[in-house]
Specification:
9 helices, disordered C terminus, single chain, mainly alpha, Tetracycline Repressor, domain 2, elongated, 64% helix, 214 residues, Arc Repressor Mutant, subunit A
Length: 214
């Protein structure tokens, strides 16, 4: 058998990652075997092992290849040249959600991150990716709101936290049933949430949830 060229090897590797991405998103990481991946790709298990040490390395490749909209967001105020208004920010975030739901690859990878992979010790890379993504969203929101508004830091943090949770919930639900989420209304809902959090008075830090004597 003739030795594969570098281009052929890259194409085979891409085919393997494509197959793994589809199977991990539909069957789940734990339920997918390397035999399944090889069969789906029309290859032998030996071809899989030539490119990847094990299934975990293959998952790493699937996650590394997908660039979610959040991955390129600025993280600090000094990285933002032109701050967005609250309305513009809400529209931008809604567009990010639509991109994730509408792009087949991002849709599948988001399914892997949020639905079809168990967050166990042996699979910490998914938990790490999720944590990093949520941190990036929170940092971006705090930086953008801090740059674009003149409100106390506590209000900015509160708005960033609320919207980050909302975005996570919307993606989670829309991945299962896209029609259950009215994406067309999302910009207005996000804008209202941001404005409400930024305008609401900050709680008195001296108050305790435990109450008197708690």
């Amino acid at each position: 058998m003739a030795r594969k060229t570098k281009l052929e090897s890259l194409k085979t590797c891409e085919l393997i990652v494509d197959s793994a991405e589809q199977l991990f998103s539909s069957k789940g990481f734990a339920q997918t075997t390397l035999h399944d991946v090889a069969e789906h790709a029309g290859l032998t298990r030996g071809a899989i092992y030539w490119h990847f040490k094990d299934k975990t390395a293959l998952l790493d490749a699937v996650l590394a290849r997908a660039q979610l909209p959040w991955d390129a967001l600025p993280q600090r105020c000094d990285e933002i040249d032109r701050p967005l208004s609250v309305a513009q920010l809400a529209t931008f975030l809604a567009q990010c959600i639509e991109t994730i739901i509408g792009d087949p690859r991002l849709h599948r990878v988001s399914l892997i991150l949020l639905h079809t992979t168990e967050l166990v010790e042996d699979n910490r890379r998914v938990q790490v990716r999720l944590t990093r993504t949520l941190e990036r969203i929170g940092n971006f929101l705090a930086a953008m709101l801090g740059k674009a508004t003149d409100v106390p830091r506590a209000a900015v943090d509160r708005a960033a936290s609320a919207v980050k949770a909302m975005l996570t919930g919307v993606v989670y639900e829309a991945l299962i049933e896209p029609n259950a989420v009215a994406l067309g209304h999302l910009p207005v809902v996000l804008e209202h949430t941001l404005a409400s959090c930024l305008a609401a008075p900050c709680a008195n830090p001296s108050l305790s949830l435990a109450g008197p004597g708690g």
